[in-house]
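Margin note from the TA: students keep mixing up input and output lines. Inputs are the sequences; the output is the structure of the whole complex. Example:
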Amino acid sequence: MSKPLFQRVALIGLGLIGSSLARVIRREGLAGHVAGTARSQKTRDRAWELGFLDSLHPDPAACVAGADLVVICAPLGAYAEIGAAMREHLAHGAIVSDVGSAKQSVIRDLGPVIPDGVHLIPGHPVAGTEHSGPEAGFPELFQGRWCILTPPPGSDEAAVAKLAELWRCAGSQIEIMEAGHHDRVLAITSHLPHIIAYTIVSTATDLADATQSEVIKFSAGGFRDFTRIAASDPVMWRDVFLNNREAVLEMLGRFSEDLTALQRAIRWGEGDKLQDLFTRTREIRRGIIDAKQA
Amino acid sequence: MSKPLFQRVALIGLGLIGSSLARVIRREGLAGHVAGTARSQKTRDRAWELGFLDSLHPDPAACVAGADLVVICAPLGAYAEIGAAMREHLAHGAIVSDVGSAKQSVIRDLGPVIPDGVHLIPGHPVAGTEHSGPEAGFPELFQGRWCILTPPPGSDEAAVAKLAELWRCAGSQIEIMEAGHHDRVLAITSHLPHIIAYTIVSTATDLADATQSEVIKFSAGGFRDFTRIAASDPVMWRDVFLNNREAVLEMLGRFSEDLTALQRAIRWGEGDKLQDLFTRTREIRRGIIDAKQA
């Protein structure tokens, strides 16, 4: 496909992901114009100063006008409101996508409000850091990562291909997946790790006799890896858990069962069981290194 | 103190930690002679080829003869046997230390067998990687990390100071701590993170519909950080859990309670509770970055 792929891309939300997407679109010349908006005045001002937008708008309605691609880069809990605000202003033939970590809820919240002739193709770049806000973005964020698209059945194939090409040009590999399957896979690979990291950091904070300063001092023994994950954006993650509730609760149930079994093996001194388990988990790490996702 | 600090250091166990310690002792000229032994012939051969030892021995008895410092760098479950093998051969005035991740069990297993006039000063360098074996070691491993010493009450102060100086010369900061307190602090900062990482990787491996290849593909969403920890040495970790059972089970209990509370908040859609919790955990990460342990 020839570049620019899109005439005008509208980004709703200008945090880590939105600002990274804006930067790579401009660097690679993937759109003639990048328009942006964000809920808070502070974020809008900062984004404008950073200079990765061609135009800045006070609300989604103004931002999406005339855009052939709209990408929502806001917390999942804001989608219904954004949908209501922009629906009357979407151009015929436009693609509406997003970057949220759950996908069934996007179809639930946006599906009913997207007008005929506009293509809803939810997306999820599996990339991120523990930093948030427009300063945190950088154009290489998506390089070598996967971007999952979850087009509803019957989606326009040309629209899906065009959106996939945008992410490919941003450096990502593309996977097409059914939204429900996405939500289960991400529940285990991303949502459960975040819940657990938040929990263990919280458990540590509550300890009276190992003071917070000791926890920090001796964090190199494993704890610090969890704190990085537990420093991720609180509102974004709140909305992920609330909007992928079913799959997250199922994975939590499985995890708790497994943890209880391990706890029992420790209590009863079942060394062979522990060693077998720990040997098995080593293999997965090798797989990740081989797949260059480490 | 003038160097070399010790005439002859005997290392029992030549894996990641033992081989790193040998390397830094030689680089910094901290001992006149570095003697080593390991349980397996393969490890001994490999260590000798790598060239970080002055002498190689088939067993602990031969290794400790004439040493003024003995450091056990083996899994905690092997200490009792090592103690029995070396007790008759320890030089008067020698220091016996170790690098294990639990400290009460060291005093339990070695205390009764160490002869009078030999100083038992358990130690724990809070440093490591997910790699194992003599190839995995490097002299900078302890640089900027903490080394915790847990001398039993009444320990010889000069011996403690000399051992502390060795670790200081290896780049570490020293913390003196009561063994029981050590075991509780490390239970939360190191042992619990490892149990949880092993569990989540195991839970993921058992999933039927998110195949292992999908888990690997999309691991960048948080999971991969856990797989790194879960790739740590299986025997070493089996022994840590079995030898710090009480503190580990207590921390597991606290963690499970907190996880259940979070699970309930997700089930009942309590967004404010989630957001408050996730905001609080961010602070700890800042503390770790400020303490240069990130």
